[in-house]
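Morning F.,

Quick status update on the modeling queue. The single chain you submitted on Monday has been processed. Sequence for confirmation:
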Amino acid sequence: VAMSGGVDSAVAAHLLRRAGLDVVGVTMRLWHDPAAAAAERSCCSPETVRTARAAAHAIGIPHLTLDVAERFRRGVVEQFVAGYRAGHTPNPCVTCNGAVRFSVLSDAAALLGARLLATGHYARVERDPRGRPLVARARDAAKDQSYMLAMLGPRERERLRFPLGELTKDEVRTIARAAGLPGAAAVESQEICFVGAGGHVPFLERRGLEPRPGPIEDPDGRRLGTHDGHWRFTVGQRRGIGIAAPEPLYVLATDAARNAVV
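Structure tokens below.
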């Protein structure tokens, strides 16, 4: 079971243990940015590794910590920075699960002789008419995380278990409290785990994307204002554009070649 230090993965491990399975918790040390002190409480920090270990001990299962920071840097962080530089809006969670986390989990399973892989994602595994495993939406639509697993191949899907797929978040917290698991009442973070509380802009600036003035235009090319870098904006963004207008404005596109925002 991949254990991130959060309540979801702890409950996933607890439910599998309660079902009589032989469970081993695996935590991946993915990232630590000394320049972002606020990232200490992120899912990549030393503190969450300690919380995951405490949860495993409370459940009564072995726990391993794997340092895969270099794989994470190459496979996720560098692609994240390159994506913004090119004018895209990367989704690092999809990349991380598809290129790093489940690969590491499969490697650990091979070393341990584990038959199944499990996580605390809110998703389900179902079968198509030919019996092939598919990642499906969770029962709790508000918490569904199936899209984060879009890059998983059939070999991973065949071995996957999602113990929280039929549960709501409130039900998971109730189980955690009843089992005395650490973090049962912890507040969830919705931020990208490795950028810290300051968000992606200062993170990108620390990695070479320096402020550079460019035009903000409407779809017809009329200049509406000036920005400090196309990578500060994402398609669909409404707030923080920096232009007063009688109607809502939304970012439609970013043009990296011209450093322009439409």
